[in-house]
Amino acid sequence: MDLAEFNRLPAEAARNVLRPCLDVDRWIDTVVAARPFPDVDAALASARDDAGPLRTDEIDAAMSHHPRIGEKAKGDSAEAAHSSREQAGLGTLEADVQSQLAAGNAAYEERFDRVFLIRAAGRTPAEILSELQRRMDNTEADENAEVGEQLIQIAALRLEGILA
Q1: Structure confidence at residue 96 (pLDDT)
Q2: How far apart are CA 127 and CA 129, in angstroms?
Q3: Rounded to whole angstroms, how far apart are CA atoms 157 and 161?
Q4: Cis peptide before 10 (omega within 30 of 0)
Q5: Domain 3-163 - what CATH class?
Q6: Which sequence spans correspond to the domains of the chain?
Q7: Residue 160 CA to chain centroid, in angstroms?
Q8: Tens digit of each residue's pLDDT (9 = 90 or more) over 124-154
Q9: Of the residues 73, 96, 106, 144, which has the fewest C-beta atoms closer than 10 A?
């Protein structure tokens, strides 16, 4: 789909296109209402800027679609397909990296009671591990803000892929 087609979609169809990017009604409604976009950059700016920051309830709802980093998404949903593509850049993880991610994921889940979420696209496994370790020192509020920002970054990347 290109931008012109996205701009022409009826609102409900546009909502359906956006939902796999970020399943947050307020974000979806904001992006749909901002159409038509003059160019892809404007659409991505709207996706990144117009509905942030995400509220805790929105983050909790959106997180239900995200697998652990380093694990394959389950199912055949659009969200699972996006996640698989995003994590594909990690390649086949070495056993040491895989075990460090598994241990880090477990520690993070124990600390924050949710899976560790990070935009995987464009990051190496070492960068992801470093971010996981850094974020373990976050307060609950700081981590919530970081997760919200990561969700928005992921949403913008997914929208860019749709409009490419």
Answers
A1: 82
A2: 5
A3: 6
A4: no
A5: mainly alpha
A6: 3-163
A7: 12
A8: 888 999 999 999 999 999 999 999 999 999 9
A9: 96
